[in-house]
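One such shown below:
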Amino acid sequence: MTSPLSVDQWLLFLQIAECGSLTVTAAARDVAQSAISRQLGAIERACGGKLFERTARGVRLNEIGQRLYPRVKTWVTAGQLLTEDATGLLREPAGVVRIGIIDSLAESLCGPIHAKMERLFPKVRLHLVSGMSGRVSARLENGELDIALFSENTRGRSGRGDGIARMPHVLISAPGDPLTAAETIPFDQLHNMPLVIPGRPYAFHNVLEHWAGRRGIQLNIRLECDSLNLQKKLVGAGGIYAIVGMSAIRAEVARHELQAARIVQPSLDRNIVLRLSSHAAPTEACQAVHAVVSRHVKQVLPTLTQWMSEGHQP
């Protein structure tokens, strides 16, 4: 009976796959290439067949190896997290926590959250990622993030994660545009308006198409752009409009660089949720970050979304 592979052997499998070369792997481990070759042979014999293809430039995973790689990576990562938890049970939370925050909230939240974590949990290190909501939620679902703060369609499924608030959406334009001069704008006025919106899998596509169909209007999507900052620059130059979360343009409206009107009839509100990854049990560090982010967002989000009605709209 073949003995099961050790953790070290699986780690070598991952390293060879990522290096793509036995020579590079050997150099990284400061051993002879022949030793790496023998160890790889032992791994493949234990698995009952080849896992790599030999090429002129090195090695690459074959079809079986490609199927094994993500499973081994997930298993090794889970083992490392378990070790971190086991050694840290009697200590304060420590380790890296990968957190994604949607662009519309990142600028306002990342600095204060980092400051609170430094003060309360100095051994926890944050890896911050920002992006459009669809990208952030997809990275969470793929296991690339530990925690994500993003927006979710109010018409979609709910009940997962921590619902924090609703984020109103606004139509933004260049300063002086008559369509956004009032505090609100009816959804029907979006008919044939030139729009720039994020590309799929951003779920807001579906919301816009749903309501356009219900209201009998035609959407004129002239450009897809996954960068919020670039969207705002394009809109500021004139000739095109965008639909964004209200908090995303607070500073630009205050500086008279953009103009905004809240969309009504219907209002395009989105749920703001804070969600932990379902790929593994949260570490002590993840739980600490989740608690800090949840408290902070619940405190500041109302002030980020209610400012237009308090006289900030020019």
Q: What stands out?
A: DSSP finds ten helices and 13 strands in the chain. The longest strand covers residues 95-102. Residues 165 and 272 are 5 Å apart (CA to CA).
